[in-house]
Fold:
Amino acid sequence: MDPVLLYDTTLRDGTQGENVNFSADEKVKIALRIDDIGVHYIEGGWPGSNPKDMQFFDLAKKADFKHARLVAFGSTRKPGIQPDKDDNLLALLDSGTSTVTIFGKSWELHVEEVMNNTLDENLAMIHDSVKFLKWNKREVIYDAEHFFDGYLNNREYALQTLTAAIEAGADYIVLCDTNGGTLPFELEAIIADVQNYLEEKGFKSPEGAPVKLGIHTHNDCGMAAANTIAAVRAGAVMVHGTINGYGERCGNADLTSIIPILSLKMKRPSISVDNLKKLKSLSRYVSETANLVPLNNRPFVGRSAFAHKGGIHVSAIMKVPRAYEHIDPGLVGNERRVLVSDLSGKSNVEYKVKELGIELGNNGYDSKKIVAEIKQLEQEGYQFDVADGSFKILVEKFTDQFQPLFELESFRVTIEKDKDQPCTAHATVKISVGGKQEITAAEGYGPVSALDNALRKALDRFYPDLDTMRLIDFKVRVIDGTRGTAARVRVLIESRDQERIWNTIGVSEDIIEASWQALADSFQYKLAKEEKIRSSN
Structure:
């Protein structure tokens, strides 16, 4: 079967999501990464709406796109204005892209009550705009906005809006579930009716083939990916979506799910096998650029997508991975992870220590004994299924394989509060590295921030590579609140560098001590990785 065309709108529709924002330079870099995996169309933005998108298209003219066609997005002409006098349409032409996408209204509600327009003028706006762009030799993708809501409200008029775009020469007609309220069985039935309507009318694409349909869905019912797949089953040949599902309200259809479903489940390959392996890396890159924490439970590319915790599960995947995995995680650039917790058995520990490259049994600590120790520690409040970094260090300590790259001599943290000023935090840290001592002090936005800054300064004399590491998440949980302010707390720290994300944990009645434990483990884990890389080179 023919591949499905992928249309990415991360840089336009995705940026309408809350807390998602990219500079023009960042948009170019993201576009090149999306191009690298073989996406067919990349929507860069709306050049008629803001200076940043205009700057993006200027920068993009100098970029070297290998696979994708860059797309400029905009609306139909305004009511009562000729297309060649409409600033939005002229901006689309000025963007220099060979493909443009325009949207028009399919729903009477929007035409009459939102735009204060007439139904006939709306049809003329669609027709005139598409015809003008085709006359200027552009490939035109027409987005039928709110099509499914419009269809349910007035089928005949919604279909007339499609007719206006088709008769003007649109290359693709994209049906949009703009409010995200359509269910898969409704959507599939409506698309089937649209297909019958187009056949009965004898409509053809500009090449003389049947009209090419696309689908653009939003996730307000949690159905964006399911609706997209239903549309492909019903005959859509182009799918719109964003990386990580970013977008307005609940987001758009997530291409990181849709691409592997099309390729691996439906045998409708849209990108190459090699490019499919870049999917997780692309997902992380976009979330990092957006400065958003990646969702661990995101299908296919999330950190937890192939994580196994139950002992029975782990025992099974050690023998036959597909017993608990629907695909090989390597196909999408992900990896299998085994979690260790109080639910673990020997299989979890044996798999995990092998993964971490640790030898067992040399000092009497076999997997059975380690499981017993872990279950006791988890009874005290530790949670190693979310702290791989601390688990590695713990097992190395059990088996006498831990080689600390620094040791704490002491630290002191002070908090100062003036009457009319916010709190300030100061930390002093004394560490030793290979018998050499270092004492440093630093300020921070809080006590943990101050400790982090002071430890970095102390270690910088010995390890200059720490500038690539940063803390991206800090969580505090009260384990048992019955003791009030004397309760034991658990601190989880998530850290990352350019290649990895790791988690560490600390537990204590003192929140500063628990924070130090997690912080120190995070630095020990990072430094051990760097030492291993250096020694292998």
Observations:
- The chain has a mean pLDDT of 90.
- The chain is about 40% helix and 20% strand.
- Residues 307-379 form one domain.
- The chain has three domains: 5-271, 307-379, 408-462.
